[in-house]
Amino acid sequence: AVLQLHLGFYIESVSNFRSQEMAFDVDLYMYTSWRDGRLAHNSTEQIVLINDRRARDLMWLPDLYFANARHCKFQEVTVPNFNLFVARSGTISYSLR
User: Fold this and answer.
1) Which residues on adjacent β-strands are paired with residue 85?
2) Which part of the chain is the Neurotransmitter-gated ion-channel ligand-binding domain (predicted)?
3) Element (H, E) at 53
């Protein structure tokens, strides 16, 4: 079976250009969605929100990376900054900053 992964970005800012290093900083939001039939459910809610990092860590997530990135970090202010929704069909919508 072929997994269809949908990916989108919202660029919040591009700054700190350093021409000598050929580097700059980007602050962005990343949105992904895919279907995992193992997570299909019959909850009374159409979409279930998962905002517990421990539950998220038990799920399969795509292994995305930025080629040639020198440094990357996910924003974690007081808690991890992500949203993860699971629809009845098992379609997962995952966003993070």
Assistant:
1) 49, 93
2) 3-97
3) helix 53-57
Residue 39 has φ and ψ, to the nearest 5°, of -105, 10
pLDDT at 94 (0 to 100): 94
57-76: pLDDT as tens digits: 999 999 888 888 888 777 77
Q: How far apart are CA 42 and CA 96, in angstroms?
A: 26
Question: Are 11 and 69 contacting, i.e. CB atoms less than 8 angstroms apart?
Answer: no
Sign of CA dihedral 2, 57, 43, 81: negative
Identify the bridge partners of residue 58 per DSSP, sorted by sequence position.
none
* pLDDT digits 0-9 by tens, 74-87: 777 777 788 999 99
Token pair in block for residue 90: 């098992």
